[in-house]
Amino acid sequence: MTGPTIRPRYSKVFLTFARNSLIRDMTFRADFIFQCISSVAWTAMNVGFYLIIFRFTSMIGQDTGWMRDEFFLFLATVWFINSIVQAFFMPNMAEFSELIRTGGLDFALLKPIDTQFLISLRRIEWSALSNFFVGLLIAAFSIYSMATREVDPVYPSVLSILLYIFFVLCGVGIMYSVMICLAATSVWLGRNQSLYDFWFYITNFSRYPMEIYNTPLGRPLLGFFVFVIPVLVVVNVPARILAQPLRPRADWEWPLAAWAVLSTIIAITVSRWLFKKSLKSYRSASS
User: Is pTM, for the whole model, over 0.85?
Assistant: First the structure.
């Protein structure tokens, strides 16, 4: 009679991964600091670029509501989500095809732990979180500016802040799901660097307010990236909730928020199914 199956405490395993990754980064501190500086410099250039734009206009798009403070809150949301994805998931997904090619996936499959969890979180790039803290500063400044301006001040409530955090996590879930789906194709394709390029291409659409796609040429893209690959809801929904707390500018914004929750559930479910299916097709490098 065999003993009970040993199920690892996933939180403890994750903390071990986090500690080991931090030790690795601190071993090469100069490289870690340089990567942080590079990320912050890139963010600063983006801030400068949009500050120049707002010298010539007061709003991104006529009657869209995306004035300077609201738009910078939107940008902060972009940095929150992207920094989390790039810190916790991107380095692992980028190495997945190499694990398949070298046979390293064999050892992952033998571990008494969920393979997707192990593959997704075994390495953390702490330097990628530097933009997260820059986003905190930008968001705090934007919220303060919205609350203290003389015309139409906005005061975020506790509920809107909690909803914002929830939908940011939904956005992370959608982005991760897209990434794990692309990584899973490595089992069949062997090497899918072009598909990772494709991930960057499609996620670029999430970095701008949805209103810019409300044109005859842009509406097909709007529909595709809201309902098929829902990257447009990733940033737009949380940013709208905090920029206009509980006062949506259109009757479609709350249904859009509901779709963000549903699409997150669908995306995670589909990505989980595809990852498991890809493992069934995997053939050991030694076979």
Answer: yes
Judge whether 167 and 258 are in contact, CB under 8 Å. Answer: no
What phi, psi does 108 have (nearest 5°)? -65, -40
C-alpha 221/C-alpha 149 separation (Å) is: 35
> Coil, helix or strand for 59?
strand
Domain ranges of the chain: 11-16+27-281
Query: Cβ atoms within 10 A of the Cβ of 148, count?
Result: 10
pLDDT at 1 (0 to 100): 42
**Torsion sign, CA atoms 52, 58, 61, 65:** positive
Distances (CA, A) of 85 to 246, 253, 275: 28, 25, 18
pLDDT tens-digit readout, 245-266: 545 556 777 888 899 999 999 9
Query: E strand or H helix at 169, and its extent?
Result: helix 158-184
Q: pLDDT for 5-64, tens place per residue? A: 445 588 888 999 999 999 988 888 898 999 999 989 988 999 999 999 998 888 887 777
CA 140 to chain centre: 20
| Nearest of 284, 287, 245 to residue 107 by alpha carbon | 284
Distance CA(32)–CA(126), nearest Å, equals 8
